[in-house]
Amino acid sequence: MDIENVKNAYSAGASQGSTGVSGSGPSGRSHACDGPAAAVLDHRGAVVRWSGAAEELTGFRAEEVCGRPVRELVAGLPDDLRDAEIPASGRVRLWHQCGDTIDVTFRTTKVGGSGSAEVLVLAAPTHHVAGHEQGAALLRALSAQNRITIAVYDTDLTTVQTNAVPDTFDGRPVQPGARLSDVLDAKDAENLEALLRQVIETGAPVIRRNQQVSWRHDPARQHAVSLSAFRLEDARGRPTGVAALYFDNADQMRARRHLDLAREVAERVGGSLDVVRTAQDLADVLAPAFGDLAAVDLAYSVSDGEEPSKQLNGGNMGNAALAPATAVWPAGIKRGESIPPLPDHPLLHSFRHGEPVVFGLDDFIAMVRDPHLVEYLVPKGAHSVMVAPLHARGLTLGAITAWRCGRSDLFTEDEADLMKQIASRGALAIDNARRYTREHRAAVALQRRLLPPATTDTPAAETAGVYLPAGGGAGSSGDWYDAIALPSLRVALVAGDVVGHGMPASATMGRLRAAIQTLADLELEPDELLTRIADLVQRLAAEAPLGDRDIVGGTCLYAVYDPVTRRCTMASAGHPPPVVVRLDGTAEAVGISPGPPLALSGMPYETTVIDVEPGSVLALYTDGLVERGDRDIGQGLRRLTEALAAYCRPDRALDETGRALLADLADQAPRDDAALLLARTRAVPAEDTAHWEIPPDPAAVSKARKWMTRQLTMWGLDDLLFTTELIVSELVTNAIRYGRPPMDLRLIRHNVLVCEVADSNSTQPRLRRARTTDEGGRGLFLVAQLGGRWGCRHGQNGKTIWSEQAIQDSPEAMAHRGGWRQSHPQF
């Protein structure tokens, strides 16, 4: 079909309503070629040469167009342009052999030298040319982005084309033919080549893979990049290489690191209520994640739980934490050392107002103005420092200092904002720890002041008590121990634990301890004493605010050891059993039946009596010593028993033994108080006691005086014969007159002379002042005047009235006896 037929056919199609589409015919067929179509025109514009690409583009063979004017191939050419000169470039519509029109873009150039009239025309479909131009424009735009690196590699991963410029002093681009190992650190190059080779082999693209790479000439400094790569193929789908796009990911990675750092500060800082531990946690989070080195300095008063001075400066601050622990710090930065005061500087005003300040090394040197002080304070290799105040609740507690050294980047403005947030959270955590320290110390001080002396030495036992307050934020919880000297050389041993923590628990403990000491002076049996203490706790609970009634309560173990009978009587109100360590080194828990805790009532307490050899050790303790999170109380009791058997040796002091036991058994920061009372028992020798049964006969009073006289003469206590004779006469007379058999008289010699008269009548005697006309009622008055002290205790089978006199010839004892004789010459 010639060109005229094509025109006619197109006109017919147009008259039938069909339309031509650029680059395609009515049938929708596409007209394309692999390369640009070429034609050579003579000086008249006639076609003299026609390329195969032109034939493929238009469908016309060379013999059909050669010799004809090229204008005949142009559709819709205006008449006024038919004789005009062909322009250098432009866009026209060409006829296709099938009758379609093709939108093409062309360019012309003269061929055959400057004197030749022939013109070469190159044409291609406009949509191909536009896509090519847009692609080229896109590549130029991407190549111009300094945060996007484009690289094209062949199948051997040799660089074909790239806009990469390594961070070097000369700034020269990477040349074609280079390999990744010529530019990157060897390990990074190996990892990237493996990844790109996988893309070539599988055809699966890599999308936004985060990588850390280092330049070969600067391996210590890493760059964060995001890699996307895809395989390049020819027209037949065969791989020809790989294209890689490296996006500068520094900002995103920095933002992610900042978020991670803020989260880590929230998770790690503030978990402890110890000021120094909190400061160290803060330093550990900052180094090396934020700075190469980090230090936390605090006012000395903060570590003690007190508020810092209003004028905080280096002189009243000391280093509390350094990180990392293995770093080499200058001489002026040592843990616990004072921070030297720095000169005033305008930048420091920002610090005083709660804003972080950043110094380069030169700025810091200029501020200090003392080369020796700079060498004293600046870590080796440091190039910049950021200092942030620790502000909380209107107080400046101290400061955080972060140093960057070597090749690390300088601090940025957004990092200063991050440090301000971190410092604010850290300051709040440190202030919480400071306030807890103050409250904890006050509670522990109160607790210790309410406890008895750590050691006591009585005729019945040598005792040593140790107390370990709770840690980890629990506060004191009202654990206590006590050793109370009782009449007749006996001793009461007490261990107790109050419900709750802090000041309320310490106050309740003080009230219970005072009540137990008062009831102990009444010489009640252990079960009766605990019953009365339980009643007191119930009254305390009733007096407490409605929301606090459930936390008023406790447990208690009360034991009385008698060195004459060598027996220990005890009762428990929900308290763990004591442990006895015998002379042979064996130890076991005493089998007692614990009653209900002190807050409960309605159940009686049971008394347990055991024989105790002299030299044995009785151990009373609280549950903080045997209960831990990783073991139950049974396991803890077994461990305590084994430790007591190992530590309690006759040649070792009890207080030393107690401290060693607490160090071995207690946690580093126990969640509950731990109290331990050790008592090494003693016995009164048999030759220092004497016993005589009193017959129910008034004549027995005279016999009792004679028996007593012989016994005191045998003991060499002649100076006590007169007063003891009067005491025995009165007590034996009262027993015969008011008591019931069996009755007996007992004398005990130690540092005091104890005179006891027991009978089976439980009626309580009463001391009173007799009137002049009364015939009786002076017996107990005389006993009270003659003896050092007297009293009455009740047992299961009656009562015992006792009196004590000092044996040693102290000035007080001599004055007492001499003064009484002058007041009572009739005796």
The helix-and-strand class reads alpha+beta
Secondary structure tally, helices: 21
Largest beta sheet, briefly? 6 strands, antiparallel
Mean pLDDT over the full residue set: 81
Radius of gyration, CA atoms, in whole angstroms: 52 Å
Strand percentage, roughly? 25-35%
Considering DSSP H and I runs of 4 or more, what fraction of the residues is helical? 25-40%
Strand order, sheet with most strands: 16-17-26-25-22-23
The span between the termini is 167 Å
Record field, number of beta strands: 31
Stretches where pLDDT falls below 50 for ≥5 residues? 1-30, 770-777, 810-827
**Coarse shape:** rod-shaped
User: What oligomerization state is this entry in?
Assistant: single chain
Characterise the protein shown here:
With 827 residues, the protein is an alpha+beta fold. The strands form 6 sheets. It has a 6-stranded antiparallel beta sheet, with helices on one face. A 5-stranded antiparallel beta sheet has the order 2-1-5-4-3. Helix 13 runs parallel beside helix 14 and helix 14 packs antiparallel against helix 15. It is rod-shaped. It starts with a helix and ends with a helix.
Task: Describe how the helices and strands are arranged.
Elements (H helix, E strand, L loop, with lengths): L2 H13 L21 E5 L5 E4 L1 H7 L3 H4 L23 E7 L5 E10 L8 E7 H19 L3 E6 L5 E4 L17 H4 L2 H17 L3 E10 L2 E16 L5 E10 L1 H19 L6 H12 L6 E7 H4 L13 E7 L22 H7 L4 E4 H8 L2 H7 L4 E11 L2 E11 L7 H38 L4 E3 L3 E8 L11 E6 L5 E8 L3 H20 L4 H18 L10 E9 L4 E7 L5 E3 L5 E3 L18 E4 L5 E5 L11 H15 L6 H12 L8 E8 L7 E6 L5 H16 L5 H18 L4 E7 L2 E8 L19 H8 L2 E7 L2 E9 L4 H13 L4
Antiparallel strand pairs: 1-2, 1-5, 3-4, 4-5, 6-7, 6-10, 8-9, 9-10, 11-12, 11-15, 13-14, 14-15, 16-17, 17-26, 18-19, 19-20, 20-21, 21-24, 22-23, 22-25, 25-26, 27-28, 28-29, 29-31, 30-31
